[in-house]
From TrEMBL:
<protein>
    <recommendedName>
        <fullName>DUF3892 domain-containing protein</fullName>
    </recommendedName>
</protein>
<dbReference type="InterPro" id="IPR024997">
    <property type="entry name" value="DUF3892"/>
</dbReference>
<dbReference type="Pfam" id="PF13031">
    <property type="entry name" value="DUF3892"/>
</dbReference>
Length: 90
């Protein structure tokens, strides 16, 4: 399943670990929704699921950071800032 993260909600700080909710859409199913970090981490870790952010340089894959608690980040690309933090806020 392919999912694009389209916006983030931050609480308590400005870093990736402070993302409290993700908005996303699934082009194939045309579903849109929002998920808490724990649910998105679990979804990304599930076999066959891939999350991306649409960036100026193209689609950038989202990966899980194995911290406590785990959180998401994008794989490195030409953008200095993580692509998740460059998304619109809600």
């Amino acid at each position: 399943m392919l999912r694009y993260i389209t916006a983030v909600h931050l609480e308590g700080g400005l870093g990736l670990e402070h993302i409290a909710e993700y908005k996303w859409d699934e082009p194939r199913t045309r579903k849109k929704g929002s998920s808490a970090p724990s649910a998105m981490v679990e979804w990304v870790r599930s076999q066959g699921n891939n999350a991306y952010v649409r960036a100026k340089t193209g689609d950038v894959r989202v990966a899980v950071v194995n911290a406590n608690p785990p959180y998401l980040r994008t794989e490195p690309d030409a953008l200095k800032q993580d692509n998740l933090l460059a998304l619109p806020r809600f």
